[in-house]
Design a protein that fits this description.
- The structure is a single chain.
- Strand 2 and strand 3 form a beta hairpin.
- The chain is elongated, with a radius of gyration of 20 Å.
- It has two domains: about 5-45, Arc Repressor Mutant, subunit A (Orthogonal Bundle); about 60-150, Alpha-Beta Plaits, CATH 3.30.70.920.
- The strands form two sheets. It has a four-stranded antiparallel beta sheet. It has a two-stranded antiparallel ribbon with strand order 5-6.
- It is of the alpha+beta class.
- The protein is built from six helices and six strands, in the order ααααβαββαβββ.
- Helices cover about 40% and strands about 20% of the residues.
- The termini are far apart.
- The model has no long low-confidence stretch (mean pLDDT about 90).
- The protein has helices at about 5-20, 25-30, 35-45, 60-65, 80-90, 115-130, and strands spanning about 65-75, 95-100, 110-115, 135-140, 145-150, 150.
- Keywords: DNA-binding, Transcription, Transcription regulation.
- Pfam families: AsnC_trans_reg, HTH_24.
- It comes from Uliginosibacterium sediminicola.
- This is Lrp/AsnC family transcriptional regulator.
Length: about 160
């Protein structure tokens, strides 16, 4: 499938972003296509790499990691060895949920989830100990999750 998307493709992607558990029949009913057309479109979107996977969004308590944080990382060095050391660390650290490479003052933004503040402290210490790699960290603790992956978690009346 080319990167050219029609209105039905966009509608299907939006519906699946909101609820990845929708069946082809449910999608068909919502979009106005047959179930077989929806199935073909979904498979084409998956094969084109536009749908990367289907995941359950867990609460922090259900995940066993109720303390969330955001860590901004400034690299000391951008040599291939330093970057690979950092990437290896984030690949292996289960507490690191998302990693974004940035422009601006910091090089990376990490979204982390840990069982408690002691575990967050240990993670920060381990990041700080990456020799010849990390120069500065700035950590913030998440007080409330309001919207994630396009889905509103906390609504204010």
């Amino acid at each position: 499938m080319s990167t050219s998307l029609d209105d039905n493709d966009r509608k299907m992607l939006d519906l699946l972003r909101q609820n990845g558990r929708l069946s082809n029949q449910e999608l068909a009913d919502l979009i106005g296509l047959s179930a077989s057309q929806c199935s073909r479109k979904r498979i084409a979107l998956e094969q084109a790499g536009l749908i990367l996977g289907y995941h359950a969004q867990l609460s922090p308590e259900g995940d066993g990691a109720p303390v969330m944080g955001v860590v901004e990382v400034r690299m000391l060095s951008h040599t291939p060895e330093a970057v690979e050391l950092f990437y290896d660390f984030v690949r292996k650290a289960d507490a690191i949920r998302d990693v974004l490479k940035l422009t601006g003052e910091y090089d990376y933004l990490l979204k982390v989830a840990v069982p408690d503040l002691a575990a967050l402290s240990q993670l920060i210490n381990a990041l700080s100990a990456l020799r010849n790699c990390v120069s500065h960290l700035r950590t913030s603790v998440v007080l409330e999750r309001i919207k994630e992956s396009g889905v509103v978690i906390t609504s204010r009346a």
